[in-house]
Amino acid sequence: MTDQRPMDSPDSPVQVLIDLARVDRNLHRLHSRAAARGVRVRAHVKGHRTAELALRQCAAGAVGIAVTQLAQARRYVAAGIDDVVIAHPWPEPWRWRETAELARHCRVSAHVDSEAAVEGLADAAAGLGVTVGVRVQLGTGLDATATPDDHLLAVARAAAARPSLRLDGITAYQALLSAEDAKDRVAVGRSTAAYALRIAALLRGAGLPCPGVAIGGTPTADGALAVSGVTEICSGAYALQDGGMLAIGACAPEDVAVTVVATDQEAADRVLDQHPYPWQTAADHQRLASTAPPGARLSPPHICALTPQVRTVTVYEHDEKRRMGIWQVLNTQDTPPTRPVKPRPPKES
Questions:
Q1: Could you say which of 34, 40, 63, 144 has the lowest number of CB atoms within 10 Å?
Q2: Neighbours of 52 (CB within 10 A)
């Protein structure tokens, strides 16, 4: 029988701990490397899903956040984040309206991959009297190069033609799809960046603005940073790191800032064995979870798969020596509105 106790209850069989000293070292490491190259860092909050850590990333130099769920984006904006990228090319019209609504309260840019999405966002923004930024998404995470050049040009032209939109540039993300890819993670980052720069040159050659070239991914960031012309790195796992990043050499053991305390084997299996990185096997997960004695401290295999399963994290200053508090994990999912929503007044400046 699966344990049904909520993950934030005092007697939960699984607790998630965060070491802020390690977090701060991780933030400084990526931010300083990017700054030395003149590249911005955007924090993809899927790697922790907490407003507190998002604010810490921005205070440490991140230009803003990336998030996929608009319901979560509103929570971050309410907490004080003022620069948000909706990092998924949503095709639903009701999301276009909600994206435009969010632009009343902060700077917003949304990924787009179709002319229909461009027109829908433009109409929604014009109706509210706001400007929404757009980033043309190149292909998918499975293949950043999959979309034909003429389609990308058509999407960019459509965005540049609408006064209610701001063409912020392009964005690319190439996942590591196998253990072989993981070994070549730096080369994958370089090739993804080189492809994105070719598309940027294509847009500029057609007379279109392309101020931003954003590349996503923590394990490929080293390669992308090595390519001149990249303007932004969007990274999720870099703040906390995890066992998967450790396994491929993307971080060192002392960089992993998150620990799962498992007092129940079944619960550990249930939480840790979810959604492995492509270079991890089910056997690796079972070995990590099932051999852990009660009270064991474990590095989660994949931090982005862990955070949707918990409601809170406990934060310490250093190696569990000083407890700093409990942070809520923001896992709210978008739902279509059931009735017309009156626009909220813009945030006072």
A1: 63
A2: 17
